Amino acid sequence: MGEKNQGVRGRFAPTPSGRMHLGNAFAALVAWLSARAAGGEMVLRIEDLDPRAANRERAEALIEDLRWLGLDWDEGPYWQSERGEAYADAIARLDAAGLTYPCFCSRAELHAASAPHASDGTPIYAGTCRGLSADEVARRTAQRPPATRLRVPNAADPAGTIEFLDLRYGTNREVLASECGDFLVRRSDGVVAYQLAVVVDDALMGVTQVVRGRDLLGSCARQIYLAGLLGFDAPQYGHVPLLVAPDGRRLAKREKDLDLGALRERGVSAERVVGTLAAAAGLAEPGCEATPTELVSAFSWSRLWREDIVVNEALLAALTKPRT
Ligand code: GLU
Fold first, then answer.
1. pLDDT at residue 258, rounded to an integer
2. In angstroms, what is the span from residue 292 Cα to ligand 1's centroid?
3. Residue 239 near residue 23 (C-beta atoms within 8 A)
4. pTM value?
5. What is the DSSP string of 167-184?
6. Domains, in order of start, for the chain
7. Which residue among 24, 168, 177, 233 has the highest number of C-beta atoms inside a 10 angstrom radius?
8. pLDDT tens digits, residue range 271-324?
């Protein structure tokens, strides 16, 4: 059982790019259980930063799906699309400290065949625009607006090695220079980068615990580094396994029959979804049907499965079989 700790403040941070699917529901459930088991609070933030994902109707559906699952929150929803000022202020502080520089590289240049890639698929930046002269910057800015990159310490500098303890995946260590390189804080179209927005928001919203899918484990080092530069305390991180298809592929958003809209239409109950996901992750007995509240007292990070959860026939049957 989690220790009583009033200081825990977790968050839901969904991106409204589609209907909530089982993997998102699972991560949201664990985030909520972890906070509530510690007597803590939850904040809801809609990550609609990218205009392509900023769809109010989809966001409302996500919010309604969280409620339907039996998950609640103490503050929010906050909308990233309304928080531009906070992000601009943080970038201005990084600019003033001389930590950023304009980058004119095109996507094609960045993704050149020879470029090594970070674990999340982003090319490791080669530093092409790091040393441009002021004249060169002015000349190129007149042609097209640049993106903004954050300078990371070189590999030999200990300040660029980030070590942290994940609640489920233990000690992680990343050398920023060799594992991601100088990274974007703002895209050339002016949209603030996810890494920057998430750090600013978690800090300003008082979030102390970040629980999310383990696909974002590789973002922690960048986020911890940024938090440090901005004078924020980094939150505690807990990553959860992903839900994958039997062939190991991530459950794609296109597997529409597994989103909550489709499951709800089929008459699957929230207790069935919650119980089945919890059982598949080691947090409840097989065949469990439960509300999130009923799972709080038995929750612990050490019970949580580390391996990805395969959405196989058995899991689907547990989810959809008629009540006996
Ligand atoms: N908005 C991200 C997503 O929906 C999550 C970001 C985070 O938890 O840091 O995948």
1. 86
2. 21
3. no
4. 0.95
5. TTTEEEEEEHHHHT-SEE
6. 2-82+234-319 (3.40.50.620), 86-196 (3.90.800.10)
7. 24
8. 999 999 999 999 999 999 999 999 999 999 999 999 999 999 999 999 998 876
Atom of ligand 1 nearest to the CA of 211: 8
**Two tokens, residue 8:** 């825990």
**Cα(271)–Cα(288) distance, rounded to whole angstroms?**
8
Structural contact between residues 23 and 213, judged by C-beta atoms closer than 8 angstroms: yes
CA of 25 to the centre of ligand 1 (A): 12
Nearest CA to ligand 1 atom 6: 13
Rounded distance from Cα 174 to ligand 1 centre (Å): 20
Q: Which residues of the chain have pLDDT under 50?
A: 1-5
User: Which protein residues touch ligand 1 with a CB less than 6 Å away?
Assistant: 13-15, 47, 198, 212, 216
What Å distances lie between residue 19 and 13, 55, 62, 263, 274, CA to CA?
14, 11, 6, 11, 17
CA-proximal residue: ligand 1, atom 5 (nearest): 13
> What single letter denotes the amino acid at residue 103?
C
Instruction: Determine the atom of ligand 1 nearest the C-alpha atom of 47.
Output: 1
pLDDT of residue 128: 93
From the CA of 13, how far away is ligand 1's center (Å)?
5
pLDDT digits (tens, 9 = 90+) for 235-283: 999 999 999 998 888 876 557 678 999 999 999 999 999 999 999 999 9
CB 264 within 8 A of CB 274: no
Question: How are the residues of the chain apportioned to helix, strand and coil, as percentages rounded to the nearest 5?
Answer: 40, 20, 45
